[in-house]
Design brief:
alpha/beta, TIM Barrel, 9 helices, 42% helix
Length: 257
């Protein structure tokens, strides 16, 4: 069995065929899918997907690219959702220093507030860290949470080691399918296997063979094959290790494992 630790199955891109997509993932060997929210407006959609599909479990948070339209009472709504929905984690939260028009102070405020919620609820976090690994680590050292996943990790080996020290796993997906991604592929090949989890980030971050097309969670086995080839091990070894890693860092997954 494989675990897709980051898939936006609630997204509008799946409105026409969500059941077919979920069935295809199951047939491909994806037994569990983590569905993170990005804003208050889709907390309900994530909860609905997780009720409708037994393989899905939700995480709730406000994404850094959505903080400009967030209000402080959205944090109250998040707190209530965390109490009501038995989430796996708080997420997708973090920092994004890539988008050109951004309010870094506002990102920091919402990230800090959500880290405190996660700490107080003893929940792991799903992190968005685009061009923001060092400031993210600074926040994590100030507010110590119970680990989590650095989604779509693309930092250095030193930064990876710092996340691992803080109890985090590192998410690898379709980006490592591109041969030009030499640094990322080197990390995938050499990091401790017990630090890696797999993800698709569907419908986004399509792998090399689906460039320009919608990404789907049934692509995870091919992503696992790439990791196996990079490390010189079997796909079965990758599946067993990454599934165990996902359950270790997101203990709520064990309730439906």
């Amino acid at each position: 069995m494989l675990v897709d630790t980051h898939c936006h199955l609630d997204a509008a891109e799946f409105d026409g065929d969500r059941s077919t997509v979920a069935d295809a993932a199951l047939l491909a060997g994806v037994g569990l899918i983590v569905v993170p929210s990005v804003e208050r407006a889709n907390f309900g959609a994530v909860a609905s997907v997780c009720r409708d599909y037994v393989l899905c479990r939700g995480a709730y948070g406000i994404h850094p690219m959505y903080v400009d339209q967030a209000r402080e009472d959205d944090l109250d709504a998040l707190q209530q959702t965390l109490l009501r929905e038995q989430p796996l984690a708080v997420g997708e939260i973090g920092l994004d220093r890539f988008i050109e028009v951004r309010d870094e102070q506002r990102q920091d405020f919402y990230f800090s507030a959500q880290l405190k919620m996660a700490r107080d609820a003893s929940l792991p976090v799903l992190l968005h860290t685009r061009r923001a690994v060092d400031p993210t680590l600074k926040h994590l050292r100030r507010c110590v949470v119970t680990g989590g996943i650095a989604h779509a990790f693309s930092g250095s080996r030193q930064q990876a080691d710092e996340f691992i020290k803080l109890g985090f796993k590192l998410g690898f997906g379709g980006a490592m399918s591109f041969t030009r991604a030499t640094r990322l592929r080197e990390l995938a090949a050499t990091l401790p296997l017990d630090a890696i989890v797999l993800e698709t980030d569907a419908p986004d971050m399509s792998p090399e063979w689906k460039v320009g097309a919608r990404n789907t969670p049934d692509q995870l086995p091919r992503i696992a094959r790439i990791l196996a080839d990079l490390r010189g091990i079997t796909v079965q070894e990758v599946a067993e290790a990454t599934t165990a890693n996902a359950i270790a860092v997101l203990p709520g997954l064990a309730r439906i494992h």
